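Weekly puzzle thread! Below is a chain. First person to post its structure in token form gets bragging rights.
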Amino acid sequence: MSDKRRAAFVFGGLGCLALVLVLVAVFKSSPKPERASPEVPVDVAQVSVSDVPEQIQALGAAQAWRSDVIVAQVSGVIEKVDFTEGAPVKAGQVLAEIDPAPYRAALLQAQGVLKRDQAALDTAKRDLARYKSLAATDSIARQTYEDQMGLVQQDEGIVMADQGAVAAARVNLDRCHITSPISGRAGVRLIDPGNVVGGGGVSASTNGASATGSPVSAGAAGGANPGAGAMGSVTGGVTGSSGIVVINQITPIAVTFTVPQSDFAHLAQVTDGLRRALKVAAFTQETNQPLGEGLVSIADNKVDPATGTVQLKAKFDNADEKLWPGQYVNVVLTLDTLRHATTIPVTAVNKGPKGAFVYVVAGATAQYRPVTIRSTQGPLAIIGDGLKAGETVVVDGQMILKPGSKVRIKANGGVTAPTGRA
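Winning reply:
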């Protein structure tokens, strides 16, 4: 190729390259048409001001206010069962009766020993009176008079022991009638007529031949202290571990539940150290139906280190007997009422690196707004600072929002903030 043709080829290539660079520069510098930002569909709610009850919600369990296991205090054969299973009973009502015959015999024996020893004491006192007058005239030795004084004191002691034996026999005879110490509701009976019971409960044996051991003791027949063995073994011979029936007091009834130690500190503050009772309500777990209202003024004396909670106990009148021992319930404890509190739905609150914030709708734009959350009560967030009544906040759709995003409120998208449980 000649030099002229080579030079023409080079200059032609350079010209094409320059033309391409010019075209690129022109197209790159030309402005692109801006695309409008899409509107984000959101649900909103208005910031409101209202009185909000400050509450603690917990899981609780009902239990009898008092629960007494009725056991026999003397041994014997059950003659009668005088209560209906599952029915109400009154304090002092007879629940069961033990065969009283051995205890009547023991009482009669103790009374006989007392009468005999009382007669011996009376004789000793008359002799002492005679010895006293004879000793005054030196008709008998002084030692004889003093010995008689000692005999009288000894007989007085024997009579006192006999009186105690009679009192014990009467107590054991009375205990053949087993009564309820409280008013409440009887459970399933644990005995039947004909069963043998002991001082410690019900025996598996149903043979009543030795139901009470040997309440009439042979020790009553004389001796230095003939009254000491009058009762013999009135409660021996039969033992057991179960009761006759369990009586549960359910009017009133108790509901126990636990609260976190942080909430307990606030609770103690608003109640002046539990000197003021707090209102508590119980609801069914399945349908959240109300079961009654009560007062809580009893707290455990320690924080459970395993759970960091404190156990509380509330008293419910339970006149309609909707609460039953062993029943699990939802508990709502009202600590205080926040007056004129600024509230929004808790779903409007977002968490960021700098704390809580919400998106406030102004016109058609979402604005970032940091807020201070005082507390949450169910579906409501109590605002300490950052919002004013009447402003509109986003409650749904905020996950794709940015400060300044255009928003479109959905049809029927306005949300009314719940008011909480009264």
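Puzzle host: Confirmed. Bonus trivia for everyone else. Residues 201-241, 415-422 have pLDDT under 50 and may be disordered.
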